[in-house]
Amino acid sequence: MLERGQVGDGASSRAAGIVRAQGGTPATVALGRWSIDFYRTQHDLFGFDSGFRELGYMLLAATEQDVADARRRVEMQRAENLDVRWLTPTEAVEVAPTLGLEGHHGATYVATDGAIDPPRNVMAYTMAMKEAGADLRERTQMTGLVTSGGSERKVIGVETPDGVISTERVLLTGGPSLRAIGRTAGIQIPVGGARHQIAVTEPHPGFDVDRAPMIFDLRAGLYWRLEEGGLLFGMSNPSEPPGEARSVDWDYMKRMRFRLAELVPLTRTLDLRKVWAATIDYTPDHLPILGPATTFDDSIEGVTVAAAGGHGMMWGPAVARIAADLALEGKTGLTDVSELGLDRFDAEGRSRLQADPIALPFPGSTD
User: Fold this and answer.
1) C-alpha separations of 257 from 158, 205, 222, 234, 332 in Å
2) Each residue's pLDDT tens digit, 37-46
3) What are the domain boundaries of the chain?
4) Does CATH number 1.10.287.130 belong to domain 11-120+193-278?
5) 266 three-class SS
6) pLDDT tens digits for 73-96?
C-alpha cells in the first residue's frame, strides 16, 4: 500500500463517523447495511474495532415535496428489507426530544444506524494491515504505471521514487486526490474535493443521555449527533468552488448554526468548543466508483478504481470488500455494481445515472 503522506493525514481521522443504511438507491442501501454488519462483527474478526455505536438516524423532510420523496424512498428501502419507518413531526420529537416541532414535516427513521470513532477507525485499519502482513509504505507516492501492449494496455508495474514495484494488479484509491492519481496513471477519474466543516458545541444537560438519534436535514445539508455531552454538527457548501480547503468558512458556519438553532433550540445559546475542516471527495452523481479502469475511450487491464464519494466511514468497509473482489476475481457477490464503473461517465464527467438523492450538497462539478 502506497500512501503519499501518513495514514490518517486526510479526512479519515477528521470525519463525523456517521454510518447509515438509509441509502437513496438499492446499491447504496446494500453498501450501508454490509458496512454496519462489518462494524458490528469487527472486534470478533480482528480483536479490535472502530467503536461503532447504534444510535438511530432520522432524515428530516423540510418541505411537502421532501415528504413525498421520502415516502417513495421508504418503499424502495423496505423492498430491500431495511427496517425503516416514517415519523410524523410529533413522533420525531418523541424519538429525539431536543428536536423542535418547527422547521420540518417529519422524518424517516432507522433505529440500527449509528456512528464510529474516526481516529479509532484509522488505527483499527492500520492494525489490521499490520496483522495481515501488508507492506504499508508511507511518504511514498505513485509516480506512474508501467504498462505493456499498444492500444490495449496492461499494467505490469507501479513507479515510485524508490523504483518500480512489479505487479499485475493495481487498486487506485485516494479520496479527493483520486482525480490527480488518475492523471498520473493515465486515466480520467471524475472525482472532486470539497471543504467539509464540523463543529462541536459545549455540553448541555439536554444532551447528557446515553443514546439519541443522529439527524440529517437533507434540504440544508446539515447533520448532527451527540458528542462529548454536546452536539457535533457538519456541513458542506454547494455554492463553493470545488478544490482542497482546510480552513473554516465562518460565514457559512454562522448560517448553518442559525438553521441548527431553528431545529434544535437548545443550541441557540451554546458556544462552540471545537471546529475543524477537511477536504472530502465526491463524484458528480454522489455515487461510489467501483470497477475496472475502463472509461468512455480508454482502459488499462489489471487496474481497479474505488471511490466512496464522500462516504468513506459509511460505505468504506463494503467499498473495500467489493474493490478487493473485483481486483482479485473480477466480480463480487456483495451487491450489483455493474452500473457503478468509470464507464458511466462521458468525456465531461457527466454520469448517465440519476444522482443519489441522499447526499451532502456537494458542488455541481468536479473541475
Assistant:
1) 46, 19, 9, 10, 42
2) 999 999 999 9
3) 11-120+193-278
4) no
5) helix
6) 999 999 999 999 999 999 999 999
